[in-house]
Amino acid sequence: MTNSSAIGLFDSGIGGLSIARKVRELLPSENILYVADALHAPYGDKENSFLLERMSAVTEFLLSRGAKAVVVACNTATTSAIAKLRTQYPVPIIGVEPGIKPAALCSRTGVIGVLATPGTLKTHSFVNLAERYASGVKIELQPCPDLAAQIESLSFDSDRTIELLKRYISPLIEKKVDTIILGCTHYNHVSHLIAELAGPDITIVNTETAVANQVVRRLTAEGLLAADNRVGRDEFWTSGALEIYRNQIEKLWGPGEHVLQL
């Protein structure tokens, strides 16, 4: 492992690409390895033991490709098992959690909502996160089954996507939230629609920029930043259907990228 080694990121699908994009913007000289573990998607309904097994397998793969740091670009995986993953490997491992702290700080009414997978909302880590940062704030939880899978289809503006978003946002509006947290990285791809449906008086909070900034801080602290005099390369892997993934990458990242079968 050297400073020119890649930053590894993974998710069950395309959700974590929103974080990878922010990392690319902040660190244009870094190489990026991204894995979509689509064969085992979605992560949001899996048991913690299975998630740790998949997280370990993907991390092993990233390290075998020389990754100098690993970003668990999935809220469910982070809240379920990142603590155990960190005990297994010596490299920096960065996760993503729902942005309860910033939402609590910016709320005017003291009522915030969370859109997330059912799996994320049930984890002990999420409960602890809410207790730690939301003192004096009421949190309204809205599980969103099927939404991540719908986003995987790239049908962002379809009637079905709008229908699901309305179904999940409406209860939060009825409960008078003034801030909505996007508690799944997949939802970042439709954040503009969520903001539009929620209305101008509701603040939307996601954590993609915060996670990318943490990657910068960790690499800086470890002395692992790549030299500035180069252009980073991107490499995308999937455990699922290669052609579907190739289409996803072309739409969300750009044509001509290296897209490979895990």
Number of helices in the DSSP assignment: 11
Structural class by SSE content: alpha/beta
CATH architecture call of the largest domain: 3-Layer(aba) Sandwich
Radius of gyration: 18 Å
- Residue share in β-strands: 15-25%
- State the low-pLDDT regions, or none: none
Average pLDDT score: 95
Q: What is the element string, with H for helices and E for strands?
A: EHEHEHEHEHHEHHEHEHEHE
Quaternary status of these chains? single chain
Which bin fits the share of residues in helices? 40-55%
CATH class term of the largest domain: Alpha Beta
Strand order of the largest sheet: 4-3-1-2-9-10
Q: Distance between the terminal alpha carbons, to the nearest Å?
A: 21 Å
Number of domains: 2
Can you tell me the CATH topology of the largest domain?
Rossmann fold
What is the 3D form? globular
Question: Care to describe what's here?
Answer:
The protein is globular. 45% of the residues lie in helices and 17% in strands. The relative contact order is 0.20. It is an alpha/beta fold and 262 residues long. The strands form 2 sheets. It has a 6-stranded parallel β-sheet with strand order 4-3-1-2-9-10, sandwiched between helices. A 4-stranded parallel β-sheet has the order 6-5-7-8, sandwiched between helices. The chain has helices at 17-26, 48-64, 75-88, 100-106, 118-122, 124-133, 147-152, 159-174, 191-198, 208-221, 242-252; strands spanning 7-11, 32-36, 69-72, 93-94, 111-116, 138-143, 179-182, 203-205, 234-238, 258-261. α1 (17-26) packs across α10 (208-221), α2 (48-64) packs across α3 and α8 crosses α9 (191-198). The chain contains 11 helices and 10 strands. It folds into 2 domains: 7-96 and 209-261, Rossmann fold (3-Layer(aba) Sandwich), CATH 3.40.50.1860; 100-206, 3-Layer(aba) Sandwich (Rossmann fold), CATH 3.40.50. The mean pLDDT is 95. α9 (191-198) links the parallel β7 and β8 (203-205).
